[in-house]
Design brief:
Elements lengths: L3 H11 L12 E5 L2 E4 L4 E4 L2 H4 L8 H11 L13 H13 L6 E6 L2 H16 L3 E5 L8 H6 L17 E4 L10 H14 L6 E6 L13 H14 L2 E5 L23 E4 L10 E6 H4 L15 H16 L2 H18 L7 E5 L5 E5 L9 H13 L2 E2 L1 E3 L5 E4 L7 H18 L5
Parallel strand pairs: 3-13, 5-6, 5-7, 7-8, 8-9
Antiparallel strand pairs: 1-2, 2-3, 4-10, 9-10, 11-12, 12-15, 14-15
The protein binds pyridoxal-5'-phosphate.
Pyridoxal-5'-phosphate binds next to helix 5.
Organism: Trinickia violacea
InterPro entries: 4NH2But_aminotransferase_bac (IPR004632), Aminotrans_3 (IPR005814), Aminotrans_3_PPA_site (IPR049704), Class-III_PLP-dep_AT (IPR050103), PyrdxlP-dep_Trfase (IPR015424), PyrdxlP-dep_Trfase_major (IPR015421), PyrdxlP-dep_Trfase_small (IPR015422)
Cofactor: pyridoxal 5'-phosphate
Length: 428
């Protein structure tokens, strides 16, 4: 039998270090919220493939939908020979994305590709080049994705120059001293200091910053962005790649706001583990790109589209939005109850199940990166897979499948409590 350490040595020899890998064990199989490595060790998966399997690993309905598609055809290239399932999925997304206006959807493969295409569409629709994004934001690893991303290490290191006409303003973050008013004022300052608003095509933001630290965008901020956009003819793009598909307790996080974006990017949990992304938006804006300007060989692959149809059904049938809120509330209550024993817990936040805990050095405003690493490492030793995020690497984000069984969820909360207590030297 091949061991984890043998594979680790082969991996180091065969693949570049730039593809950073968090775990030193190798997946053998996975089921709902559990994962087993090649040596038979079990893990509870609170990473969900970075927010991709909100519907769990290998959901039987999703597997069945893919099997059914596998027996018919796996690829024709939608732009060459189209298929009905792509059109039906677009109709479903159009009907369910925020706003009553006519909408259209185009499918792609990755989140970064969705972002690239949202930018292309916004530029084609407005005839303007400029883009405004936010510090701490993450929009992918392509050149434009990196340009828009507001986190230097590790994403931008050594990869410039980036596309021009991209400007950043600070994202609201009260814990670190940035108010909503500060952020909105900073956007207005860009118009005085850096770019004529008439040259700005779009403002792109995440309704809850993902990679940047799970900071939810305050309602006033989102309203403020909409107002700025309306005043200057700028398009508002909500990047819902990480927030979408029931994670926040709604199908899309923008449904928590009384603001409608012009364009929205979707990916990750859209297709339950298959690579599929999309841009959905106002029909007339979506039609701005000339025929042939959008697409890609694999864009809207039929296997991934089949999975996405099943994902939407599972979200409805298993009421995963409600379940996200229920499980998220339970997790937040557990973390809050531990604040007394674990003084590093400075903030517990997030809508629905898009929950995070931020650690600061006890009694200070200083990020506690070391403590966060310790918690993550100890959790992993005990079989609980946790992800870290935040510009300072001091936030643990929780991304468990929303289909997780109650018993497995409770087991994970028990492990989390033990790990947090151990990390401050309290015997659990
Ligand atoms: C908000 C957001 N946008 C874009 C991306 C990029 O998606 P992908 O990694 O599929 O290219 C991510 C990935 O984490 C994301 O969280």
């Amino acid at each position: 039998m091949t061991t984890n350490s043998e594979l680790q040595a082969r991996k180091d020899a065969a693949t570049p270090r730039g593809v950073g890998v968090m775990c030193n064990f190798y997946a053998a199989r996975a089921e709902n919220a559990e994962l087993w490595d090649i040596e038979g060790r079990r893990f509870i998966d609170f990473a969900a493939g970075i927010a991709v399997v909100n519907t769990g690993h290998r959901h039987p309905k999703i597997v069945a939908a893919m099997r059914e598609q596998l027996d018919r055809f796996t690829h024709t290239a939608y732009q060459i020979v189209p298929y009905e399932s792509y059109v039906t999925l677009a109709e479903k997304i159009n009907a369910r994305a925020p706003g009553d206006h006519p909408k259209k959807t185009a499918f792609f493969t990755t989140g970064a590709e969705a972002v690239e295409n949202a930018v292309k569409i916004a530029r084609a629709a407005t005839g303007r080049p400029g883009l405004i994004a936010f510090s701490g934001g993450f929009h992918g690893r392509t050149l434009m994705g990196m340009a828009l991303t507001g986190k230097v290490a590790p994403y931008k290191l050594g990869f410039g120059p980036f596309p021009s006409d991209v400007f950043h303003a600070p994202f609201p973050n009260p814990l670190h001293g940035v108010s909503t008013a500060d952020s909105l004022r900073a956007v207005e300052t860009l118009f005085k200091a850096d770019v004529d608003p008439k040259r700005v095509a779009a403002i792109i933001f995440e309704p809850v910053q993902g990679e940047g630290g799970f900071y939810p965008a305050p309602a006033e901020f989102v309203r403020g962005l909409r107002k700025i956009c309306d005043e200057h003819g700028i398009l508002l793009i909500a990047d819902e790649v990480q927030t979408g598909f029931a994670r926040t307790g709604k199908l899309f996080a923008m449904q928590h706001y009384d603001v409608t974006p012009d364009l929205m990017t979707i990916a990750k949990s859209l297709a339950g583990g298959m690579p599929l992304s999309g841009v959905v938006g106002r029909a007339e804006i979506m039609d701005a790109a000339a025929p042939g300007g959008l697409g890609g060989t694999y864009a809207g692959n039929p296997m991934a589209v089949a999975a996405a149809h099943a994902v939407l059904d599972v979200i409805d049938e298993e009421q995963l939005c409600e379940r996200a809120t229920k499980l998220g509330d339970k997790l937040k209550a557990k973390l809050t109850s531990l604040q007394h024993d674990v003084p590093q817990i400075a903030d517990v936040r997030g809508p629905g199940a898009m929950v995070a805990v931020e650690f600061l050095k006890a009694g200070t405003r200083e990020p506690d990166t070391e403590f966060t690493k310790k918690v993550q490492a100890r959790a992993l030793e005990r079989g609980l897979l946790l992800l870290v995020c935040g510009v300072y690497g001091n936030v643990v984000r929780f991304l468990f499948p929303l289909t997780i069984q109650d018993a497995v969820f409770d087991e994970a909360l028990g492990l989390l409590e033990e790990v947090l207590k151990e990390s401050v030297g309290i015997a659990a």
